[in-house]
Amino acid sequence: AEKKVINFGAGPAKLPEEVMLEVQKNLVHYGNSGISVMEMSHRSADYSNINDQAQQSIRDLLNVPQNYKIIFLQGGGTGLFAAVALNLMGRTGSADYLVTGSWSAKAAKEAAKYGKVNLVFPKVDKYTEIPPASTWKFSSDASYVYYCDNETVHGIEFPEIPDTKGVPLVADMSSNFLSRKFDITKFGVVFAGAQKNVGPAGVTVVIVREDLLGSPLPVCPIILDFTINAKDNSLHNTPPCFAIYVMSRVFEWIKRKGGVSAMESAAQKKSKLLYDFIDSSNGFYTSTVKPAYRSHMNAPFRIGGNGAGDETLEAAFLKGAAANGMIQLKGHRLVGGIRASIYNAVTLEETETLIKYMKTFLEQNK
Ligand code: PMP
């Protein structure tokens, strides 16, 4: 029999069940094609429709104007760490980075291979907040300013879009893409690896403003070249067709559910329930992030140990959670403890089930 579990994984993460069933239904024979999307030419009319539809859905869901290109690349979020620098660093040879967690730190390190990287604020010891904007120092000649909108490991999300005074802004939205509304016209580039909120691993969505195309560094590999891949409509080489197909189905699901604003209110509701419960536990559970910067998608927390985390208790918590069908709750090895990822596909009921278990565990162990 089917084993029912609740998946709180950080990525690859839960996809909507409706989408999984639809994909299953069309897995072997897609439409009238007689073959699977996995088996069809990326030059076929069927695939061309999938590709165009996926792009159009992003345009519709986020109101992306025509002066932005939408492209699908491979290489994951990590590939984009390099791609951003390879495509944008050329103008001045330097870029500004806001480092607020491990993913933006990795992006800065990768970019430093291709140009000069300035840190907008000094490296912090522990990622628990975002230093106030009044302390930020942008350089005068940055080609772009880079930040990570939602740090998946540390659970830090920007409450507001950074103001760069006109310098092109680049955002990694891998773990909160389509979970809240944003004004794309404030950005030069937004990118997101699909495997959290929008699909399976294998495809990275890139939204890039047209005027930033055309000046990649000469060493930029073709597969990471925004200009060529935009011109060729993400069909320069074989794309991850199946991942893009599944992603296009997730976009339809988001539309059926009421669009990005519906995702946003659900995320606010789920995360508020979770953090409010953590904060009301008299220090048994502790959030590792200052309230204003807490992620609506990834909630890392510790159990016991006066806020530092008692590893024995945390192991018992994970074991009990698994016994109750709740999985992938272990915190990232960099921070330890527990991390509950409550992406778009994780329902309010599932979040409530987790909180109920947390209550019981508290009663039994306080
Ligand atoms: N950026 C963020 C915010 C992430 O959470 C991750 C991890 N999935 C990455 C980048 C790296 O993505 P990938 O594993 O696809 O290279």
Report on this model:
- The protein contains nine helices and 14 strands.
- It is globular.
- The longest helix has 21 residues, at 259-279.
- The protein is α/β, with parallel strands linked by helices and 366 residues long.
- It has a seven-stranded mixed beta sheet with strand order 2-10-9-8-5-3-4, with helices on both faces. Strands 11-12-14 form a three-stranded antiparallel beta sheet.
- The chain has helices at 17-25, 45-62, 76-88, 102-111, 226-231, 241-257, 259-279, 311-323, 348-365, and strands at 6-7, 68-73, 94-97, 116-119, 145-148, 150-151, 156-157, 169-172, 189-193, 204-209, 285-287, 298-303, 326-327, 338-341.
- 4'-deoxy-4'-aminopyridoxal-5'-phosphate (PMP) binds at residues 11, 76-78, 103, 148, 152, 172, 174-175, 193.
- 4'-deoxy-4'-aminopyridoxal-5'-phosphate binds at residues 11, 76-78, 103, 148, 152, 172, 174-175, 193.
